[in-house]
Amino acid sequence: MTTKTVFITGTSSGLGKLTAIRFAQMGWNVAATMRTPEKETELTSYDNIRIFKLDVTDVEQVRSAVEQAIASFGRIDVVVNNAGMGTYGPLELARESDIDWQFAVNTRGPINVIRKFLPHFRANNGGMFINISSFMGITTAVPLGSLYNMSKFALEGLTEGLYYELKPFNIELRLIEQGGSAGNKFKESIVWNRDEHIRDYDDMIGKLEQVMNTAGDSGQLDDPQTIVDAIVAQATGESSKFRTVVGAAGNGLMALRNALPIEEYLEKMAENYK
Ligand SMILES: NC(=O)c1ccc[n+]([C@@H]2O[C@H](COP(=O)([O-])OP(=O)(O)OC[C@H]3O[C@@H](n4cnc5c(N)ncnc54)[C@H](OP(=O)(O)O)[C@@H]3O)[C@@H](O)[C@H]2O)c1
Questions:
Q1: If pLDDT is split at 50, 70 and 90, which confidence band does 243 have?
Q2: Ligand 1: does its nearest atom lie under 6 Å from the Cβ of 156?
Q3: Deepest of 11, 48, 188, 230, by most Cβ within 10 A of its Cβ?
Q4: Active site residue 273
Q5: Where are the domains of the chain?
Q6: Which CATH code fits 5-271?
Q7: How far apart are alpha carbons 47 and 29 in whole angstroms?
Q8: For the segment 118-141, what is each residue's pLDDT rounded down to a tens digit?
Q9: pLDDT band at 219 (very low <50, low <70, confident <90, very high)
Q10: Ligand 1 proximity of 184 Cβ (cutoff 6 Å)
């Protein structure tokens, strides 16, 4: 059997790094991409992982990383669009640059990567894009996360929309909606929009911070390996679900969202932040 190859964005930490290691341990070749390869010390110890420099917002770097990975491995079978970040805070306080950056990383980034892989996948008559979304990409649940919601809802729309366009070429699309996962630096990388200060939002910010800080203690965070399991299940064909919601928190919210009229759902969620 020929060895398969996966290309992953954002492998310097968290889910991306764990996913790279899992595929390598399974015997796959891994094109692990990150913004700062010079700092990497862990992935370098695997013979079947090759590291490429990639900031997903830089179209020229995307072109170069995709070309190098294809030249290096000959063929890429699966692309995991994992790189992402979160901008939180009152919309009216967001810096213009933060708004653009949220979209640039979480939405435009996957677009850049997908576009550069399409000629290769069409030539191979197949391939798979696994886009890492969030339950925040299919429902809302907290205040002050509208920009993050926007970026992941857009990623979901992009992925669904592409289904029709790529089906004739045997190119598959998957979405993984994770909740919060333990052991990553996502929380630390959140950009809070609070260079300025508006007192009206203080209570809401305090409550959201409390929810984020206690999520780990109250068992609401998922074991990141369960998210890796979901990615692997799609890549290996063990599952062919278009959308996989991982974890109790995300699945609980989705059950509620599907059961209630949207007006009731929104009111119920807002109750938590009164
Ligand atoms: N953790 C959660 O609670 C959670 C919940 C739902 C969804 N997600 C999604 O899961 C995915 C993985 O996040 P994580 O939980 O593993 O968090 P993480 O540990 O913060 O990892 C994010 C990765 O994305 C990379 N990245 C950020 N901006 C980039 C850019 N412009 N170009 C290339 N790489 C970039 C980071 O690299 P640097 O080291 O260079 O910054 C890092 O490797 C993201 O798409 C995130 O939105 C996370």
A1: very high
A2: no
A3: 11
A4: no
A5: 5-271
A6: 3.40.50.720
A7: 9
A8: 999 999 999 999 999 999 999 999
A9: low
A10: yes
